[in-house]
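User: Can you help me understand a structure? I only have the sequence.
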Amino acid sequence: MKDFARLNNVPVYIDIALENFKIATAAKVKLLSISNMNELDDIEKEIILIEYERESHKHSITTVVFISMAIEAYIYDYSARELSDNYAKTYLDKLDIISKWVVIPKLITGKEFPANRQGFQLLKEIFGYRNKLVHFKSTNITPEKLEEIHKNTVDSFEMASKAIRCLIELSKDITSIDPHESIEFLFDIVKCKEALKNAKLE
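Assistant: Let's start by predicting it. Here is the structure, written out as tokens:
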């Protein structure tokens, strides 16, 4: 790395994401616990379940958005450090996030980014979901529309866990083609793995 004295928000974004994932995980645990309670009547149970489902969903999508912000901020910072701020702003900043992860490592290392690995596949999935979140369009509700929404509903908690997994895998992939670069100097990869383990997803 050519320049250590730079300011970026990657560590802050990841801390926010992990804090929210912890809350989402706790809500999921509560959901499972309450689902197995026989002492609650059906209506009371349903109300409580909806509350915890909303809690999990809210903090899960926050996790996805902040992990996405961290991933995008990191790849820009990588290009600016290695190729110059002016080059990054002029030629690379307008690329979509998928193209950035293909083009920038190739420009810096001369090697192809391993797009066949899990990290890149998760990157596409996470940003597809993130784009739907941040560019959400309202719609009229009809019975047919409700059925379509239900059929296409994505588990936000699962996407949050995939976002954390994506971060871990991308860090491995960058290091595999650029041994001198380590995303880990920006965040604690052990915390990310622990978050997945605590969610019983690893």
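Now, to help you interpret it: The first helix runs from residue 10 to 35. The chain is about 75% helix and 0% strand. Let me know which part you'd like to focus on.
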